[in-house]
Amino acid sequence: MILGQQSGFTKFPCFLCFWDSRDRSNHYTKTEWPARDSIQTGFHNVICEPLVEPSKILLPPLRIKLGLMKQLVKALDKERQCFAYLVKKFPALSRAKIKEGVFDGPQIRTLLSDNLFLDTLNKNEPAAWLSFKKVVENFLGNHKSENYRELMADLLRNYEKLGCLMSNKVHFLHSHLDYFPLNRGDYSEEQGERFHQDMKGMEKRYRGVWNIIMMADYCWTLKRESTDNNNDKKRKRNPLHRSLEDERVRKSRLS
Ligand SMILES: [Zn+2]
Fold first, then answer.
1. Cα of 184 to ligand 1 centre, how many Å?
2. What is the CA radius of gyration of the chain?
3. PANTHER family given for it (predicted)?
4. How many A from CA of 16 to the centre of ligand 1?
């Protein structure tokens, strides 16, 4: 991780404070957690020095949106109509991914504009879904409404009622909402989207194995692209440049 934090289900995943991810009973009630004044290697889930100062970390709205969607879908009743509707609506997504709430930006947009989905929800689900929709439209895009704090408070209340577990991203909205305005300028969702799509491609190519070679490969793809642009070729970006892994597979087939 960019912050040199341990991966997996860590006790202190937040880089700004000591939010205890395992202390579920306090998640939606306690907003103030002791601040991290330094990031010390070897302590509190920090495995190495961060590459970037915490004050310079950007929190891309797309990631927050994906995170909110994930927690919401995970809390939906899997035995009911709403889950069957999602399976039917997104045939390319596996049941496991839907169950885990793994959707991308375009899929979330599709669902947000689909009023039939709302009809499949019941009890506390519609309120949570509608508040998610409001937060996406009024806070996570480039337009931020005056009443965003209210919208966020509604969302958190409705998520809690629905039984959504608090993830790191939900915690950010709960405890560090002030961190956002300083961090956000005009943001092109396309950038975040492209990174997400590229990573999906890479993941497929490397068969789900995340390693240094894959990251290096990705960085080279970006570097090649920026060199192309500097040379003013304005070539359309080809996300399927032959990767090191493809090359390795190709060579092993030839030999
Ligand atoms: Zn925190």
1. 18
2. 20
3. APPLE DOMAIN-CONTAINING PROTEIN, ZAD DOMAIN-CONTAINING PROTEIN
4. 5
